[in-house]
């Protein structure tokens, strides 16, 4: 295996690091009571994490602008007491950590003592004038408010005169500073922006609408720097959950107008979007009394999108709310929350909207949109690649300054190589580039050949092979795949020596020289056909209305702002757009020819550049037509090409000795392994469903690739998202060696096949339940193309910790069904509690006390019905679909609603049927989300104990109580409600075997599950087997009449099935 190369600065030796810290230790300000808490001073290094981001921009604004840190202020309080002093730094004292651009470090001289600290970024002007003396932490933080700049817009572009860095905050918490304190990296200080960001993107598939403006209505003029309002902030996930709007803020109707009027550039007309322009304070879109009712439409924060529909000359307007509804018809309104990124993606425009922005705000709209919301900073902090354009954005030209052939790959490249550049010419399958200027060909017209030969026209090498794929008419065939001029099976796509020198695919050759970004090849004829089909056929390609006049040839010596005509930079006045966005580009084209210079992402522009004649190389038809080579021969002499002229674009078979320009396509699919193959990467974790344990071990991802690649952890995925409350939000990977032997914030690069190591945090060893889904992104290092995304579930290796810590019991005091979720819960609901009984798929809870069933044993039903006979107690008696099959991995109640059973909550409360665990979760009667376990999950629990019994017996006698559970009360509750504790039972799970991890019957260890022998109820409701055996339902039916369950008795624990109308206990599992 190749050694993995890391892109980060290696740590200095400890002594050097300390010397550096002391040398750069500073204190820009120190205000407060100088003797309040500590005594003496110490230089302390702080490291803070900034929220990451990536997105397409409107202009040259980058994510780093949104994360720019000008000043740091640390507010220091007594622990549990009043403010003590502030300190901070700014400018060059704040450095970017070499391992991660989102990590900032600085060293400050601190007073020794025990403090409670808050970190603020870009808030110097807010705190400098405040009198904090004698005030508590909560009072100071609540007073930190920010006013929106005059004009109502927050400008995040540093180049702008009214630029203002975005304020951020982070809670450091309780810290002790003493003489040995050198750094506070362990505090894991993460900053959060106080603003929300709003972008508008017109989907590339929408070709009938051009964005011209975005207006924001009902915005707040003031924001709280720190979310101090009750219920506004989730500290475990560090996420805003409700807006914190200062009482002094004014909800201003506005609107704030974002457009390109008066010299502004807030709308990217080429990309049809508005991005990194709109930044808002938090806003409440619900009425005061909770989040159940949306405000009236005219009182909500919303946007109005303006644009030109179907090529109209004047704009039309549409309202779009912050909502999960796709067309403003629903009431699923969203608040505007800090550090959230809202992207309004316009997916359909079917008719004209309102005549004015104001009318759209007050009325309805006819636009279809989606609002995508992410925590602003959960995105990957890498250049956005997304879906790259398949087609090159210009013909091949000659770059004389660098002595190379090249072409435009990105929209940015069109600034120097416009899409309407004529290009240089090639015979088919030739690497020899010929200038397009002058009518008569001479060898001096050759701009490039591998051996620097100046050939006569008839001597220029080209692909004159006639056998095999060279002689058939397969339009989908890439004739140069594997070409080397010899066997033509494993070559790079061209020949650079020997008899066939200067022959092959010029696109592949340019790619392999590194003269353009990415991997490219000649398009097949079928790919030209596909491009024609996207515009509706050859007759529907769109002319630029240039007249298609015939210049014959362009004279030598001419030039324009982009380059010399000799090198292919002449811009014919005529051409055609192809692709789905052709009509939209034609509509937005103007006298400046903006859509010819730089087409949209869903169209390709082909200029009428002419051709050189097959017999003598003389030039003709420049300005009136053009043909462009494919990589597919049509017979032994001719090759398919794309033709464009005044009437249409079409497929045409031409003699191979013509000189045509070339338009390349991305080499996305080749698996030949040649040096010029499309970059590809796969891993042994592809396909999903892979898991690694939270045990502190190191695990490897095996990478198979043909390119130099780079890997990184997708921002926001390296964290625990479910499990014990005290670990939620903590990292999944070791913070120093977790990713490729270094920090999970680093970028790891390698070439070809290799391995990537992942080292997890050991939560299992400390008995903590932790789980999260880690996403690793692999990209081509050369082009930035995303090659693979791998999601790996990092979770406890034992399924035992996923099971509830008791059966379901009845809490008569609070009139609810419940069960133990945590070890602390076992203090009131022991794990050996018998539990109450349920038929399979029933929400009706039946008391276990009483040998013969009576209606008064019903403890609960959602509908309130408590007078059922046993036979009439509802249960899941369905027999079709998954209810009639034996899928041990099937969760039969996923989506159950008693109707279509596809999108339901897992139950139907009105019929008293469904998954009782989901019902209890949905009511909020226990912490977290729970469901019935599948049969496979119960089997996995059984498999964790490898003895013959799949469990460990508790030493009880497993003796049946003839009359069922005895009536009575113990220290936990009434036996009637499921609190009887049978004397016998079994431990299951990986921790059951070891006495040190098994725990007790009442309070098992964290990796063991105790099942009491709680008995059953028969098909007539009679209770039996209490003290001798017991069973807990799964969510998996066995056939049309039975369902699987997990049973325990004096011999073993086992998986089996039984009649659904029997009564069993229930042990839930985490959703």
* Secondary structure category: mainly beta
Shape: globular
List the uncertain runs: 1-24, 33-38, 53-63, 378-388, 669-677
Q: What value does the average pLDDT take?
A: 86
Please compute the radius of gyration using only Cα atoms: 35 Å
Determine the strand fraction and express it as a percent band. Answer: 25-35%
Report the sheet with the most strands, covering strand number, pairing sense and barrel closure: 7 strands, mixed
From the N-terminal CA to the C-terminal CA, the straight-line distance is: 39 Å
By DSSP, the count of extended strands is 66
* Alpha plus pi helix count: 12
DSSP helix fraction? under 10%
Description:
The chain is mostly beta strands and 1071 residues long. The strands form 23 sheets. Strands 1, 43, 45, 46, 47, 49 and 50 form a 7-stranded mixed sheet that branches. A hairpin with a 7-residue loop joins strand 30 and strand 31 (503-504). The relative contact order is 0.07.
